[in-house]
């Protein structure tokens, strides 16, 4: 599989899961400074002009949640998506929160032009990021198992995603140690060989 990614982005989550599974993949790093994600060649692969994109034998797949679940389905023996429908739904509730709220809070720092045109609006959005990211940390701290994995004793596809978002906290002005259970999850994930391999890849 070909995997399009970029440094410091949510594509780290896909890279970690690929490493966890041992599936073969070829990483293609996009240069955001050169706006490679906006170029016609890339938009033909991902019309949203974002990362990650996974090129599978069935075609091009976008959206972290869809990609992570697709990868998990290639290795059913790893049980990366809970077999029990309620447990799986609980995991997806966390994942939708990561995609629609936690990540979007972070995006207000550098992608304000998606929502506003005035410079003063950008400044306002940037100023708000430590508060909203802190609120999301508190939500996860209070509502996820984090024992030790996001959903409990077993690793699921939610874990690399949560870890990836937490790599942004420092830059977003949030001290993760204020959320001890989340901080323990971050440290635990950070120690995994998959994360070391993604560092080696140069996107973390
Ligand atoms: N919901 C998407 C979000 C993807 C996304 O926003 N990726 C960002 C990087 S973290 C991106 O590619 N941004 C490029 C841009 O906005 O030009 C997912 O989780 O895959």
From TrEMBL:
SUPFAM superfamilies for this protein: GST C-terminal domain-like, Thioredoxin-like
Gene3D superfamilies reported in the protein's UniProt record: 1.20.1050.10, Glutaredoxin
Listed CDD domains: GST_C_Beta (cd03188), GST_N_Beta (cd03057)
PROSITE patterns assigned: GST_CTER (PS50405), GST_NTER (PS50404)
GST C-terminal domain residues: 84-204
This protein's record includes keyword Transferase: yes
GST N-terminal domain mapped to chain residues: 1-79
GO molecular function: transferase activity
Superkingdom: Bacteria
Name of this protein: Glutathione S-transferase family protein
Taxonomic lineage of the native organism: Bacteria, Pseudomonadati, Pseudomonadota, Alphaproteobacteria, Rhodobacterales
